[in-house]
Structures are given as C-alpha cells and as structure tokens.
Design brief:
Elements lengths: L2 H18 L10 E7 L6 H14 L4 E5 L7 H4 L8 H5 L5 H4 L1 E2 L5 E4 L12 H15 L4 E8 L3 H9 L2 E6 L3 H17 L4 E9 L2 H19 L3 E8 L2 H8 L4 H4 L4 H15 L12 H11 L1
Parallel strand pairs: 1-5, 1-6, 2-4, 2-5, 6-7, 7-8
Antiparallel strand pairs: 3-4
The structure holds adenosine-5'-triphosphate and magnesium ion (MG).
C-alpha cells in the first residue's frame, strides 16, 4: 500500500472511531462547580443556593442543577415550585427550557433529582439531542453549580468527575471531616481532573475553620499527594435556620449576618481566582458525566 493510501485509510479509521464516540459538546459554561460532601447535612444545598445568588449579584448568569436524588432541596430553599424535572426532558416529554425554573436574582434551577440515573442508559441519538439542548443553554450561562447528594455514590462521583471544580463541604466535626477525607481518597484513586476545593461550614469561629481547612489540605498532600485548596468558611449562624424556615436564601434574608458575610467572601474568592488557563477537557460536561457513570 502506498503512503497516500495508508494516510487515507488512517483518516477513515479515525473518522469511524470518532463517529462511535459520544458526542462532543462544543459549548459549556466557563465554570462548572460541583458542591459535594462525604457526610450528609453539612450544608451543601445552602452553600450551593446562596453561592448562586452571590454570583448572580456579581453579574453572573447562574444555573443550579439540583442533583440530590433522595431529596430535592434547592427548590425548597429558593421557594420555587418546579412542575417538571430532567426525566421529562430525557423521555422527550418536555424541552429543557420548559423544565427550568427561575429563582431569586434570576438564578435558574434545573430539577434533576429524577432522571439522572437514566442518562447512563441513553442511546447515542437521545444523548446527542439532550446535549444539544444543553449547549444552547450554555450560551446563556456563565456558571453552572451542581448541588450533589452526600456520600460516595457512583452518581455523585460522576458529577464531581464531570465538573471542572469541586467544593467539598465539611464541618469541623470529626465525623464530617473523616467522611470528607474518605471521599477525597476515592477521588484520588480515580485520578479525576477536577480542581478540588474545601469549604468548612458551621464553624464556631474563623480560627476553628482555618485549622480544620488547613489541616485537611496538609493531610491530602502528605498522604495522597493530592492538591486541594481551602477556599474559606461559613460560620454557624442562627440566621441560616431562620432563613430556611422562611424559605429564603440567607444571603437575601439577612445580608449582614455572619453567614452572609462569609458567603460573600467565599464567592469573591472563587470569582477572583478563576484560573482561565486550565485546559478544557476534550469532551463536554454531559459526555464526561455519562462516561463516568458507564465506566463504574
Ligand atoms: N452556616 C450554618 N449555620 C447554621 N446552620 C446551618 C448552616 N449551614 C447549614 N445549617 C443547617 O444544616 C442543615 C442542613 O443544611 P443543608 O440542607 O444545606 O445540608 P446538605 O449538606 O445539603 O444536606 P443533604 O446531605 O441532606 O443534602 C440546614 O437545615 C441548617 O439548619
Ligand atoms: Mg442537600
């Protein structure tokens, strides 16, 4: 076979191979942040929702995926009433934009508590249809925040692995702390490409938070050779509970309370130090997510 024939054959082979790969999304939000934790009830949904509002107040267009499969939380915290969810989109009953609901400060919410697991079983054409709808949405979204369920389940890990950044939330309590460590350990064995960060919630004071945060950073580096950044903390604050009872995000209910101040600092830190030079993965978010779910 001549050199020219070989080159043609090779190009054909590559083309065939590319056609069998999951579709590649061309557009996705510039930041995709998964908010996750080892232990339940540490404040993920509160941090995800209030962070979304703080980003929106800073002029960003924000979409939250409420991905907690057991209990949908973001809708309750933001007092929105979704009629449909991701499963309606997957089964072709609704368009993606019909499923989205708008919360305070124009933050949009995709209720995904139902439907996420079905994604793993979608055929190529169905997945491509869904991905195209998400690509259109990406043009109107600067930051995508995913509020995951707690714990080391395959679908939580797939969301974290598909995101570009992950905020692992813990409290300074040993139980939450060890569960956060266990989750990071699993992530380290999977060699995920996500930038890992830590947030300490419900801290008694700044010193307690910093001690817990910095300790985790050290332990991760020493025992797992894993780089994780301590992004900041949110103090334990009775206004958080009061805001939840009113179904209002605390950052709007009590903008000057301790928790709101911490949250704004956290949001500002995240916005300021965005590293735009991080190489974009070859595949888009949903392709990465489905791939991780299928690999398990
Ligand atoms: N900074 C805080 N100060 C005081 N209470 C807080 C704070 N953050 C969270 N809480 C309390 O913790 C509870 C759990 O918070 P949240 O629902 O955000 O946790 P979660 O990690 O999303 O839980 P789950 O694992 O069930 O999804 C809240 O109902 C609230 O009462
Ligand atoms: Mg939650």
């Amino acid at each position: 076979m001549s050199g020219v024939d070989q080159a043609t054959k090779l190009r054909e082979l590559i083309k065939q191979k590319e056609e069998t790969l999951p579709p590649i999304e061309t557009r996705e939000p510039s930041r995709i942040i998964a908010v996750t934790s080892g232990k339940g009830g540490v404040g993920k949904s509160n941090i995800a929702s209030n962070l979304a509002i703080a980003f929106a107040q800073a002029g960003k267009r924000v979409l939250i995926i409420d991905a907690d499969l057991s209990l949908a939380n973001v809708d309750i915290l933001l007092d929105v009433h979704p009629r449909f969810n991701l499963s309606h989109v997957i089964f072709g009953e609704r368009k993606l934009e019909e499923v989205l609901v708008e919360g305070p400060e124009g933050v949009r919410i995709l209720p995904a508590s139902s439907g996420v697991t079905e994604l793993a079983n979608l055929g190529h054409a169905q997945l491509e249809g869904l991905i195209n709808q998400f690509s259109d949405l990406a043009d109107e979204t600067d930051i995508l925040i995913i509020d995951t369920a707690a714990g080391i389940s395959e679908n939580v890990l797939a969301f974290v692995a598909a995101a570009r950044e992950a905020l692992v939330v813990t409290t300074p309590e040993p139980t939450a702390y060890t569960d956060a460590y266990a989750m990071l350990k699993v992530l380290s064995t999977r060699q995920v490409e996500v930038q890992l960060g830590l947030v300490v919630n419900m801290a008694g004071d700044e010193r307690e938070a910093a001690q817990a945060g910095e300790n985790m950073v050290l332990v991760c580096r020493q025992f797992m050779n894993m780089g994780i950044r301590y992004w900041g903390h949110v103090l334990k604050d009775p206004d958080v509970g009061a805001a939840i009872r009113r179904q209002e995000p605390f950052i709007l209910y009590a903008p000057h309370c301790h928790a709101s101040r911490c949250l704004r600092t956290l949001a500002a830190n995240l916005l300021e130090s965005h590293n735009g030079s991080v190489p974009r993965p070859r595949k888009g978010f949903w392709s990465r997510f489905v791939e991780h779910l299928r690999i398990k």
